[in-house]
Amino acid sequence: MSLVALRGVAKRYATGTLALEGVSLDIARGDFVALLGPSGCGKSTLLRLLAGLADPTAGSLSWQGTARPEIGFVFQEPTLMPWATALRNVALPLELAGLRRRDAEARAADWMARVGLAGFERSYPRALSGGMRMRVSIARALVTRPPLLLMDEPFAALDEITRFRLNDDLLRLWEAERFTAVFVTHSVFESVFLARRILVMAPRPGRIVAALDITAPSPRDGAFRTSGEYAAQCRTVSQALADAMAEAA
Ligand SMILES: Nc1ncnc2c1ncn2[C@@H]1O[C@H](COP(=O)(O)OP(=O)(O)OP(=O)(O)O)[C@@H](O)[C@H]1O
């Protein structure tokens, strides 16, 4: 069943830039969708439309049950409050939702453990590594258990080993929670590792040029990352991306 259906969506900014045109897609509840494409193809714009941070200039977004669900966000910058401990950062969305501080912190501590940060509750963001700050950001996004998680190149600034670990842990969380995930990335390798469906986008105007299903089963782990199946899927997606870029050029 689709969580959201987009039909003929376009977005033209006030500057005249046509960031998206003719975008039609269905995002199934519980799916993991990657938006893959070169700079400027409208990935972030599509995420902003899903988030309700911008409105389409043409076409429609229809949410199942008619209302946009609660949404968790993870950006490339973890955007934590520097004056608050990691635990306070994770607890904040719960307190904003009306939970008592003690209950919010208990649940936040549980989520910190789930992202591998047990023992760092009292640490301030500046004392944590980039990867750990990103883990705090993921815990903060998921602590209210939103049905939809939007991620905009969350791991692009991290080193490769840290990025692999976060990919592994994100998949574990998704398998346990089954939120719907929409993940923006420039990386073919990351998109194939994470996603069940990859939407390849091309620029000028931003549009979806291919939709590829990645059928590899769970669990996807270190063994999957070095498998022939993974390499073959990466080749297919790379080719689709190269075709998209050639068409756009
Ligand atoms: N607020 C804005 N006002 C005007 N133009 C914008 C705005 N935001 C994005 N654009 C333009 O719309 C197009 C799509 O931008 P968008 O950021 O959605 O692409 P992207 O695929 O996410 O790129 P990147 O990978 O570089 O983040 C680009 O040409 C961009 O310059």
TrEMBL record:
The lineage of its organism: Bacteria, Pseudomonadati, Pseudomonadota, Alphaproteobacteria, Acetobacterales. Belongs to the ABC transporter superfamily. Pfam families: ABC_tran (PF00005). GO terms for molecular function: ATP binding. Gene3D superfamilies: P-loop containing nucleotide triphosphate hydrolases. This is ABC transporter ATP-binding protein. SMART domains: AAA (SM00382). Keywords: ATP-binding, Nucleotide-binding, Transport. Residues 4-228 form the ABC transporter domain.
